[in-house]
Write a structure and sequence with these properties.
Number of helices: 2
Shape: globular
Mean pLDDT: 76
Strand order of the largest sheet: 4-1-5
Number of strands: 5
Radius of gyration: 25 Å
Helix content: 40-55%
Order of helices and strands: EEEEHEH
Structural class: alpha+beta
Largest sheet: 3 strands, antiparallel
């Protein structure tokens, strides 16, 4: 399940080390985008930040990857289909004209 991080400090930015080696920089009060939960498993640094009360880790709603992929694919396909139709329409229009003049 994906998680989000929120910096609870009112005046200081916070660096959150992730298991992958990446680091999130959060401004005061800022929340991160969704991060896979494997990034926080067995992380003593994140546990320490939570105990100190400077970091909130919230589990976000579980959305299936298939639904998101389907939505993204649907948008991409319709965009491609429209550009193909435009390209095909102009090609079809020019082809008979070219064929007739040849």
């Amino acid at each position: 399940m994906p998680v989000t991080f929120t910096n609870l400090q009112p005046r200081r930015h916070l660096l959150v080390p992730l298991a992958s080696g990446a680091t999130l920089r959060l401004s005061p009060g800022q929340s991160s985008d969704e991060v896979p939960d494997v990034e926080i498993q067995d992380s003593p640094k994140i546990d320490k930040l939570r105990r100190q009360g400077v970091l909130d880790v919230a589990v976000t709603a579980d959305t299936t990857d298939g639904e998101q992929a389907g939505k993204a694919a649907g948008k991409g396909e319709s965009g491609k289909g429209q550009s193909r139709a435009k390209a095909g329409g102009s090609s079809d229009t020019s082809s008979p004209a070219d064929g007739g003049s040849s």
